[in-house]
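User: Okay, second chain of the day. Same drill as before: sequence in, structure tokens out.
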Amino acid sequence: IAVVGDVGVDYYKNLDLVKPGGIAFNFAYGLISSGQKSVSLVSAIGNDRYSKELLVLIKKLKIKIDHMQKLVGNTPKQDIILLNGERKFIGYDPGILKKWKLKDEDLKFLKRQNAIFVPLSDGMENIFKEIVSIKDGPIKATDFSQDYEFADFDKKVNIITKYSKFFDIIFIGGSQKHKKMIKALASKYPE
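Assistant: Same drill. Structure tokens below.
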């Protein structure tokens, strides 16, 4: 399984605590933790103070990083405050994600996988569209979040209705008000 996307840090400002994060990292970690033996991260990190620690951790977890690029710039960072046990996202710097591009060998690798997971998140639009363009081969899964900078879930035609047909599995981080749209999608794409 290949997980494509953001690997970064979560900075809990009111605790002055830095933890590994990013939707792709969290998904890859979940796969490894549940017993999946072969998980590859296809991603990019910066050359800042966080990148070395992230690489050490990822290697320790036995997540493959043959397709991890190290670019000049900042590793993605999510600013969070913890209030009454709840996380509140207060800012996001996509860092190097804005300039990250998949290489030809990354695309060839992805087409050979059994499954690919890619979230649609800030700074990931171009990468997401490249995964959408993979027509045959692996099972494709994605994650749509209402926290995405350009989330337009309240429109009749939105990112979910536009891109669902290109994925076999979708996760949606929405709210109760999106239930009608999700049910309509489930009816349109029953399998």
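The CA atoms of residues 142 and 170 lie 5 Å apart.

User: Thanks, on to the next one.
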